[in-house]
Amino acid sequence: MATTMLRTRRTRKRLTTDPKGRCLVGIVRGAAQCAAPLRIYSHSAMVEQGRKPYMEKDITSSIPDWRESTPKEASLNATLLRRTSGKVATLMERLLTDKEINLYHSYGNVVSVRRLGYNDHGPVHARITTMNALRMLDLLRAGGIPTSLEAEQVASFEESQVAVALGCFLHDIGMGVTRHDHEWHGINLVDPIIREYLAWLYPDQLDKQVVVRAMIHEVIVGHMAKVPIHSIEAGTVLVADGTDMTKGRSVIAFNMQFEPEVGDMHRFSANTITRVEIKKGTIKPIRISIQMDNTTGLFQIEEVLMTKVKASPVMKHLEIEALISGQVPRMYLK
Ligand SMILES: [Fe+2]
Ligand SMILES: [Fe+2]
Predict the structure, then answer these.
(1) What's the CA-to-centroid distance between 172 and ligand 1, angstroms?
(2) DSSP letters for 222-253
(3) How many angstroms is it from 41 CA to the middle of ligand 2?
(4) Prediction pTM value
(5) How far, in Å, is the centroid of ligand 2 from the Cα of 31?
(6) Cys staple from 240: which of 88, 133, 151, 268, with CB 3.0 to 4.6 Å?
(7) Which SS3 state, helix, strand or coil, does residue 323 take?
């Protein structure tokens, strides 16, 4: 594995490339959770060819090509379309190919991964969390739990699905501004998009546009567990956001960091999570099953997922288990 050193604003870091010259740091788009070759640039290839690395090049050359999905994104797109129907499928078809939204996701990862050293908040995270949120909503329904809009008799289950899907898909776009209060920055950026989509989905139905728009705002501002939320819809997205914790999400931040730094526990613990499964519970409607190589991964459950679960109205409908290689399962919620 070839390596080269580059001084950044934060610290001296080692840029790692694989034998094919794929730069693990320069990954912006879904490649943060995918081992696919980069389509943007390869740092080592540039150095070997005597060309300037990306930080010295025209910035526009680093903007990802939104028109081509990575293999990981394409796989998630297919799953999302296969699992949805009706208006939700129509919504997903447009969302997954929306140029502006894809660019917001990609740039959000520039800030998250390159500038701040966080994990993936881009197109793959949006797809995984949306898929998990819709899955949980289906399991709640199968378990006889109505959404808040249904229980309050202001909208249908499908409208709750639309609010969850659209809100979840857009929830981290504010990372493109900054990490702090990114849920509020996100609202500022995406509200025109929300209004446009709802006017398209519900033409001449202002009541539905108003209700779903307000619900989407609760979904987005509530996803960090800092703003109290009260609906099943927002609570579902809050938990779904915490379920994207497998090692793929942190691989870039993990590979960037070779010197001890506060936050290492997040990277090392996430790197032990091999699989997160969302399925029907034994007693409650939903079971979240987290598989890991060793107990380090428990940090992800206790400090990341449970923080969100405890703030979610969905908590009482969840079973959460940790499956550690060679050990008996540990139940966090049952
Ligand atoms: Fe977030
Ligand atoms: Fe998120």
Answers:
(1) 5
(2) TTTSSS----HHHHHHHHHHHH--SGGGGHHH
(3) 26
(4) 0.81
(5) 16
(6) 133
(7) strand
